[in-house]
Specification:
single chain, about 425 residues, 6-stranded antiparallel beta sheet, 8 helices
């Protein structure tokens, strides 16, 4: 082959190579790529599959700044920011033409975080019955510790309404402690005040050395004698008097403010606890759909300590303001439990119970409780942990955890844990 023919062949070869490079670039530009949708404030990752384009290298992705994502090793990742449709520039080269950077256009859709669609309007601080939108507490309880967090639900925050849940915790004379939790009825005009009065009045009733002395005397008889019926009757009578005291306080408040008693409708659960030389005695009461659960010291057993007004009471929730509860069946609402030790004593409103347990039978299912405490330990979408060991900030941690997202569950949330 002559020199001229060799030159012609070389030119043809280069022309064919350029044509092939051009063809492969255009094919890459033309291929329709759909990036997986991202969700605002949730970790995102998308890998570019380049197997069909062995000669194409992505060098960079332009216009990423506003998305909150980064590009590295053929992968987009990060926590996206503001929801929007973003037009991105895929900057690429062909291995046969490394000096020329080409652009391929793609779109990335970042969906809005459902939490961001809810408004958080402060409640009216000048209202006569104002209540803070959240509250928390940590401290001593008998010889253990307690943490409580109560948050206004998204449904109330969206409309600037008040938190209707409430709680009261108090260390009483003679080494007794009490925790009371209440959920104000959404249909009641002043449910927030009803829940506050219900919990405060129960704590106030038992803040009496005389009453606690009577209870303790009968407890010692009950757990040391074969003849226990009279002692049990005396204990239940004193517990009954506390519930009646709460009812009467609510009734009196309604009269003072020209309200119907049902304007103050609220559930009520409480536990009165003391450690004796023979074990922890836990006296309990419940009306409504808020559970009290006791978990054994080795986490091998869980007990529901109160009667829940669900099931046969469906559609007719009972409240501390429901006079009909003061009948012969009220005895079944009181509980008396004695254990050598326990790991956790938990009280909650349905704002926690509904999304985390869903049904009453799961409240006595050990696996459901293990999942619940794993959730508290950080196994959740937000990786938020409530640290029961290094518990210096446990009250704020529990408040933060209470912001969890659960579709359709936006009620007030109150959770009390003795540990």
């Amino acid at each position: 082959m002559g020199k001229f023919q060799q030159l012609i062949s070389k030119i043809q070869s280069k022309s064919m190579e350029k044509a092939l490079i051009y063809k492969e670039k255009e094919e890459f530009k033309d291929v329709y790529w759909v990036l997986k949708n991202a969700n605002s404030k949730q970790f995102y990752e998308f890998s570019f599959n380049m197997e069909d384009f062995p000669n194409i290298e992505i060098k960079n992705i332009g216009k990423l700044e506003e998305t909150g994502l980064v590009f590295e090793n053929n992968k987009l990742s990060g926590i996206p920011g503001v929801a929007n449709v973003y037009n991105l520039d895929i900057e690429f080269i062909h291995t046969g033409d490394t000096h020329t950077v080409e652009i391929k256009k793609v779109q990335l859709l970042i969906n809005a975080n459902p939490k961001d669609l809810w408004k958080n309007i402060p409640s009216d601080i000048d209202d006569t019955f104002y209540k803070p939108d959240e509250d928390s507490y940590k401290g001593k309880f008998v010889d253990k510790k307690i943490v409580i967090a109560s948050k206004r639900g998204r449904s109330h925050a969206h409309e600037g309404k008040f938190r209707e849940d409430d709680f009261s915790v108090r260390n009483l004379p003679a080494d007794w402690s009490i925790i009371a939790v209440s959920d104000g009825a959404g249909s009641a005009k002043l449910a927030r005040e009803g829940s506050r009065i219900a919990t405060a009045s129960i704590s106030q009733f038992f803040d009496s050395g005389t009453i606690l002395e009577k209870i303790e005397k009968n407890i010692r008889i009950y757990y040391s004698s074969e003849t226990t019926s009279e002692a049990q009757h005396n204990i239940i009578r004193l517990l009954y008097e506390s519930v009646l005291y709460s009812y009467n306080t609510l009734e009196q408040t309604a009269g003072e403010h020209n309200l119907s008693l049902h304007d103050l409708n609220a559930t009520l659960i409480f536990t009165l606890v003391k450690k004796f030389n023979f074990g922890y005695v836990i006296l309990s009461f419940g009306v409504g759909d808020c559970p009290i659960n006791l978990i054994s010291s080795d986490f091998s057993e869980v007990q529901l300590l109160n009667q829940m007004d669900v099931g046969e009471f469906g559609g007719g929730t009972r409240f501390i303001t429901t006079k009909e509860i003061f009948n012969d069946q009220i005895v079944s609402r009181f509980g008396m439990t004695c254990v050598d030790d326990f790991s956790h004593l938990v009280l909650m409103t349905d704002g926690i119970y509904d999304p985390k347990f869903a049904t009453e039978n799961k409240l006595e299912d050990l696996e459901s409780w293990k999942m619940f405490f794993n959730d508290l330990n950080g196994s959740n979408d937000d990786s938020l942990k409530v640290d029961f060991i290094n518990d210096r900030e446990i009250d704020q941690q529990l408040l933060n955890w209470g912001e969890f997202w659960s579709k359709g569950n936006h009620d007030d949330r109150t959770l009390a844990i003795i540990y």
